[in-house]
Structures are given as structure tokens and as C-alpha cells.
Protein 1
Amino acid sequence: MDDSSAYPYRLRQDFLSSAEGAFFRVLQEMVRGRLHICPKVSLQELFFTTRPNENILYANKLQRKHIDFLLLRCDTLKPALAVQLDYPRQADHRQAEGFLDNLCAAAALPLVYVIVRPTYDVPTLAADFAEAMKKVRGENALHHTDFSPICPKCGITMVLRFYKDGPKKGERYYGCLNFPQCQETVEVGTT
Ligand SMILES: [Zn+2]
């Protein structure tokens, strides 16, 4: 057996940055065990290139890049949603985004960008995730119940709705599935 102490490897202490760690905890709160969270998944582990001999340039684009968080369905362990943290002041980050958008669209993987903030409004995030998932309907598509808040009265999943009239017309909110018997709502913030 090799003398491992001679190997020039050490454990990185920045595997998750503080922003990534904070968002990981928010994701945990959102999915509450309904989905698995994989941080920092390499694009090469997640995607492959069709006709690789013709598409070498595209294959190369997958190298040394990762998606910040990948959510897996618990039943099939298949990738269901990609979440990329967005640092608004990092211009070089922007460049990669166009590629990532097109990549995820081509591979039918829903993608959500989340702007890094000191705190997050979970119902707003859940609503954003639900909308991203609506755009992509694949075999691994998630259901709104994978993120939605639980009704405080009934203990069941709430659903994303839109105010049809009144001063909040067009705005999103979560309503109880037992409506109209239960009229609990959860506001979606405008953050
Ligand atoms: Zn209810």
C-alpha cells in the first residue's frame, strides 16, 4: 500500500461558500426531504453530448463547470431541477449564463437562477421554482407539491394561484387545496 501521507492532497475548506451554505439550508427547508439536494454537480456528470465526434466544441464547454445545486426526485433519483446562484456584480458569471440557459433548455432540465441575498423568502422561491418547472415537462418533471408550503390549518400541500381581481390582481399566492372550506393563504413576496 502507498504511503498516503506523501500524497499532495488536502481537504478544501471552502467546499461550500458561506452564500452556498446559507442557500443549501434554505433549500433543505423548502424540500423538507421531498427531494434530494446535490451541491456542485459537474456539468460533465449531468449532461452528455450527442454525436460527440461532430460536437467536440460543445463537449468541451461542459468541462470544469458545475451547477450550484441539483434537486433529485426521491423516488427515481433522477435530476429534476437545477438551481444556479446568481451574483449580480460578477460580470464574468453572466457570460456562462447564456450557455447554461441553452444547455438546460436543450436537455429539458428546468433551471432557476436565484440572486444571492442575506435572507430568502421561501414562498417566493417556491413559486419561482414552480414556474420554471412548468416550462419544462419531461418524464422527471416535478409536481408543485415538491416545494409548496403546507397549509397551517390542514397540514396539506398548498397550490400556487393568482389573484384574479382586486388590488393584487395578477400577483401570486399559495392557497389551500381545501378551498373554499379552508381559506388559508400564504403570501408570495415581491422580492
Ligand atoms: Zn387549509
Protein 2
Amino acid sequence: MKGGGYYSRVNRGTKQVISDALDLVETAIEGMLIEDSDRVFAIADYGAADGGTSYELVRNIIGMVRARAPKRPIVVNYNDLPKNDFSALFEMIHGEDEILGVKSYLKDYDNVFILASGTSFYRQAFPDNSIDLGFSSTALHWLSEKPGIISDHIHAVGAKGSELKAFAVQAKKDWQTILLHRAKELVPGGKLVFINFCIDEQGRYLGNTAGVNMLDTYNAIWLELVAEGTVTNEEYTNVVFPQFYRTGEEFAAPFSDPNGEVCKAGLNLDQIESRVVECPHAATYRETKDLDSFVRAYVSMLRSWSESTFYNGLDPSRPPDERNRIVDLFYGKYEERVRRTPEEHAMDHVHYYMMISKANVP
Ligand SMILES: C[S@@+](CC[C@H](N)C(=O)[O-])C[C@H]1O[C@@H](n2cnc3c(N)ncnc32)[C@H](O)[C@@H]1O
């Protein structure tokens, strides 16, 4: 993903998704034994990107913990992949970037420390029994690896038969891996609040709630570039998002087998429900009817999380300029489509919001 705080600047939707988790976080913290002591209260944000979208929620968490434990040191661990732009994150959280438009929580609360962990959430990222509250939003749909090709789509939502099965099997394995590592990291009585992309009870998923299907549109435009001779067949199949949107049943499955490893590790699924957050860009357009602003903001937001997948699917023998030109052409075509039927385009977010706890006696 692009660095320099670009992610937070253009992603109003994911910020709203996180704000909507406040009730879950409140319930999680209310249910925890938080004593005032010298022991660190550790928060982890898994897949935090530049930290801007979860910033207000983290401020709220700090406030809630501080109210019950005035002297307790608090550490916020921001986790993401090694190549994440952690410099942008530190600049933002220290209030050296205007992007947040609010005072850094580090200026409001003392005895609060921020640390970064550049270790994949597919590994244990923190020591045993060290995290009190783990949080993750819109990150755990990224698989640990691409389990195969999808011959006629760029995303598992369009896969069928054995190709879909390979993604589902990988996603099942990965969900268990994520949970088992978090079970080790959590203190007994610790909690996880996870907000994950999904396919909900009505078959809805990101950018597929009504109107144009966003991922089908990506696929159609990528195919258009093949038909025009700009992108090769091989480059077409190279582009597959290594992601999977799990169903509620798939999220809940590891918790329902008392002899399974997740239950034996002491994890319990306390709460799970799907929620849809309306695309803020589409909502603004409906009010303002400012088409240029909508097209620009909407496609920039799409670009912020998808561009690298298309760029990396292009043959590495092409010079970077050429790859950038093709990617520009791709998003230019997306812009044209939005311009033609703006009211049909929206990236509504569809997530399962879940709270998980680790037993007090492991
Ligand atoms: C769409 S962003 C979400 C950022 C933020 N949590 C939010 O909700 O706005 C997904 C983030 O997950 C990170 N990510 C993907 N796979 C990861 C992994 N295996 N370990 C840690 N972070 C990962 C990406 O680098 C990216 O920053």
C-alpha cells in the first residue's frame, strides 16, 4: 500500500467501520478485570496500516482503561507487515501530521507508550500472556499465501469449484493459525475485538450490496485490457487477491468444537454479528451531487488498497513506468464507469464484528 499516511487520508469508510466498534470495545473492557498496578496494560492493533483509522478508538480505549486504572502504564502495539510505512504511523500518532486534525492522545494521557511490531499476524508477534486487549479491523481477510489460481476472476468471491475450495481450505487453516497465535499472546481473561470482511447472511460483501459489484468491475476492466492487447493472458491470471471473505459459520466453526485446538487454547466466541457501513463517498455524492469530487475520492480510495495487486501482477520485465501507465489506464477506466453511472457505485463495507475472550484459567 502507498505510504505517507495516504491510507488514512482516503479511507473514510474503514475509519467509520472502526468507530462503529466502540460498543464492542466498551463491553470487552467492562468484562475485564482491570486493576490499578505497575503492570503494563497492553493493547495490540493487528494490521494497523498507518494507525490513522483506529486512532480515535485507541484514544477511547486508553480513556476507558485510565478511568479504572489511573496509574497503570499503557502500551499500544501497532502491528503490520514489515514493509508497512511505520514512519508515517509514528509521525501521525505523535501529532506531527495534520491528517488527524486532532491532538495526539499522547498529549492527553501520560504513561502511554507506542510500539510497533513488523511481524505478520500469521506468526506469534508478542510474548506469551502479554496482550490484554487485541483489536483488528479489515485485515484478517488477507491470506498467508495465494492457494492457487482463479481462472476467470481476480478475487475468491468469483471463484468456483475446486478453485474456490482451495481458497476456502486455506482460509480455514489461516483463521485457526491467527486464533492460536493470539491465544498465546493474550493474558488469561484478555479479549479480542475483531472486525472482519465477510460474506454476510444475505450474501452481501464489500462493494456488493446493491448496484454495481466492485470486484466484478475490477475483473471486467482487467479483461478489457486483455482484449485490447495491453495486458497478457498470463498477467490476467497473475492478478488474484490473496484474500477470502469468510461467512459467519466459517468464523464461528473453530469455537464450536470443544476438542478442537482453539477451544483447548481457552478461546471463546462471546459475540458475533454482521454490520454494513455505508460508503461515505457515495453518501456525500448523494448530498452534494459533486461528480468530479466523487469520482476522484472514490477511485483514490479503491486505489489505496488494490493498486499494488494489479501492479505486481504485471510482468516484472516491463519497466516501472510502463507498469504505472497500465495501472493508471486501469483506474482511468474505472473512473469512466463511475462517471457514467455514479449512483450505481458504492463500496459499502460488510463486516462481522466479533468479541473473543481467553479463559481466566487457561
Ligand atoms: C485494509 S488495511 C486495514 C488497516 C486498518 N486496520 C483499518 O481498518 O483501516 C489492511 C492492513 O493489514 C495489513 N496486513 C495484511 N496482511 C498482514 C499480515 N499477515 N500481518 C500483519 N498485517 C497484515 C496490511 O499491510 C494493511 O496495512
